[in-house]
Amino acid sequence: MLDKIFNLANRKSAIGSTVNINEDLRQDTLLNTGALQNAIFNSANFSSIATDAKGVIQIFNVGAERMLGYAAADVLNKITPADISDPQEVIARAQALSAELGTQITPGFEALVFKASRGIEDIYELTYIRRDGSRFPAVVSVTALRDAQNTIIGYLLIGTDNTARKQVEAERQRLLEIQEETHKQLQRTNLTLQVSEEKLAVTLNSIGDAVIATDAEARVTLLNPLAQKLTGWTQAESAGRPVDEIFHIINKETRLHSVIPVMATLAHGTVQGLANHTVLVARDGGECDIADSCAPIRDRDGEVIGAVLVFRDVTGEYAAQQALSDQQFYTRSLIESNIDALMTTDPFGIITDVNRQMEALTGCTRDELIGAPFKNNFTDPERAEAAIKLVLGEKKVTNYELTARARDGKETVVSYNATTFFDRNGKLQGVFAAARDITERIILDKVLQDNNAELESAKFMAEKANLAKSNFLSNMSHELRTPLNAILGFTQLLEGGKPPPTPSQVVRLQQIIKAGWYLLELINQILDLALIESGRLSLSREPVSLTDVLHECQGMIESQAQQRGIKLAFPHFDTPCFVSADRTRVKQVLVNLLTNAIKYNSKQGTVEVKCTGTPERIRITIRDSGAGLPPEKLLQLFQPFNRLGQEKGSEEGTGIGLVVAKQLVELMGGAIGVSSTVGVGSEFWIELIRDMTPQLDAVNALTTDFLLQAKGDAAMHTLLYVEDNPANLMLVEQIIAEQPHVHMLSARDGSLGIALARARLPDLILMDINLPGISGIEAMNILRNDPATMHIPVIAISANAMLRDIEKGLEAGFFRYLTKPIKINELLSALDDALKIAGNVH
């Protein structure tokens, strides 16, 4: 029938003149077409709003009423679609279109239909405002309605709710109701044939549902584009065929053929819905889940003349539902497998859900707990209720202790952690809480507190013992250094004295000196190890030139290497190379490694030093050609006092040099390692942090030493030495006696030294620290505070050789701090520096 109307309309347009058509036939055709259009127009899930040319609403279908909350009577001939749209979005659309099309578009209804009025297809998203003020996103398709002369007589706005899809059953029921209501409403609409055809075409092409229309014999009369896509049949191919040939459906679970609702609709004239789990089988065998309904098409007398079948692909919705179900099962599994007792409450503290752990904690079943007050399960209900209020006020609470009481009276201390939760619209839903049994933890905490108290006591005792050890080592160092000072000092004087000693005497003196310096090295290593172990060793980090340090180390060990016939090979640096370290300690480590490489080398062997590096670190490698070490001995290298079986060998050693070296390197942020092959030799290496931009202090090198200065000076210098030990006093007297332009005075205690300094105003003062009466530091402070003596440099000479002693002395104001035993060259160098300063002051 629709084909006949289209043919008549086409003939009328083609010949451009009036054709005599039987009036009854024309009316029947118009009514039948209108009925078909009306049924289709209102059977889908969309809002249809038709306006006149000025935008005033003329048609407002049931879908629009449902979506927007207005009755048709409230809006017909009263408002435009712009009045139910978000005003800011309408303004923004007008601005965007103005920029896009190059013409000024007024915000309002014109912005909604401007493209359609120019014949441009226009589908856009817009926010609709319901009567109650709530909003929802919609996809709107706009079509200009034109008469036979192609003049715009209005606009059709078809909108679909773009909010999350509802469940299939709810959607089906909604469509059933919409179809019934829209069928009744569209029967009241009497539009011209041309307008009806245009609206029908726009509707079928725009809606998001598939539509199949049949005649009274259930033969297909129309398929819209989406129906053609889902069934695999074209309009031309399907026209006149039985609908069950085109629309082939089966039950998803049984795979059996399902009855098409068209037959029941034609037989009873009622709206019919599809059963659940219905699958549409397309022409090519493809399948998709579908839902929706079938409604009758009636003529003007109410007779059923056909049916319209409206359906949609819900495969994605079913998959989403299944995924949601799976996710809910997964979430529940996580909740039930949690070791904590979990629960949710409403904002008033009434339990809404629990897991099995909560059942175990309280001794109640899930059904018994749900609906009961949260506070009832705790020994202190008021504190439990306060916890809920605290969460609601601060959004969360952590480590809130409560004591749960089970049905059988068992009490369990729990740590309560909770937070609020909200729905998708931000409305408070309640509190999610987790209660963890901490009874055992509280017991362990008590044990831990007791243990900590014991550890604190043990730490105090250990620190006390460590301090006693440090004091003992300091005192031991002082007591050993004092006689060593006399032994080494007088031996050095004898070795270089006049008349010179005989060759046999030289050998004996050298043995004394060697043994003395070895004993001093042993003392220093023991002190270093004690300081490192106590964590009291301080390092002075600075840019250190490896060129200078290795040159100094080479000079210190060359004589030892020559005596043993060892060939030395040191690296040449084309450019300066610096590391960030303590200069003294770097040299100490390198000398230790070089000395070992010489001591434990083979006769006529070699010692090779290499430097390699990265932008961040420098590696110094010392390789010898000695006997090498087996793997089992390498593991024992850095153990204190372990000499790896060399205790009875000819080489002297303490077994702590490498231990100190390792700990010093690590304290400077470096690393130390070794590899060795028996019969080939060993290779020790240290890595230190590279310093790329060293800031070296300018060094004003003195061009002459003390003896040259003394020879060139006509003036006589006076030196005062305050010392209570006769041997030390005699040693310095004999050293100074060799300097022709220095006259020495002496005092046996601090008070006499102060008096002598004030009376004679010497150019330089040497001061022992441990003096009878007042100490050397106190005596120095008195001289510093006296205007007459404050300019005199004071050099400390003491057996107190701990690093903290040296730092304390320099901080007190001593010009230099020399430790006993005295090294004559160091003493003369310090005298030289001090006398130069004294000369400048004078």
Automatic annotation (TrEMBL):
Residue ranges of domain Response regulatory in the record: 718-835
4-aspartylphosphate: residues carrying this PTM: 768
Matches recorded under Pfam families: HATPase_c (PF02518), HisKA (PF00512), PAS (PF00989), PAS_9 (PF13426), Response_reg (PF00072)
Record lineage: Bacteria, Pseudomonadati, Pseudomonadota, Betaproteobacteria, Nitrosomonadales
SMART domains cross-referenced by the UniProt entry: HATPase_c (SM00387), HisKA (SM00388), PAC (SM00086), PAS (SM00091), REC (SM00448)
GO molecular function: histidine phosphotransfer kinase activity; phosphorelay sensor kinase activity
Reactions accelerated catalytically: ATP + protein L-histidine = ADP + protein N-phospho-L-histidine
Enzyme nomenclature, EC number: 2.7.13.3
Location of the PAS domain: 40-104, 196-255, 327-382
Keyword S-adenosyl-L-methionine: no
GO CC terms of this entry: plasma membrane
Domain PAC: 122-174, 274-326, 398-450
UniProt xrefs under InterPro entries: CheY-like_superfamily (IPR011006), HATPase_C_sf (IPR036890), HATPase_dom (IPR003594), His_kinase_dom (IPR005467), HisK_dim/P_dom (IPR003661), HisK_dim/P_sf (IPR036097), PAC (IPR001610), PAS (IPR000014)
GO biological process, one term: regulation of DNA-templated transcription
Organism: Candidatus Gallionella acididurans
Domain Histidine kinase residues, every copy: 475-692
Keyword Transcription carried by entry: no
Top class in the EC scheme: transferase
Organism superkingdom: Bacteria
Subcellular location: Cell inner membrane
Protein name: histidine kinase
Membrane topology category: Multi-pass membrane protein
NCBIfam families, per the entry: sensory_box (TIGR00229)
Keyword entries, A-Z: Kinase, Phosphoprotein, Transferase
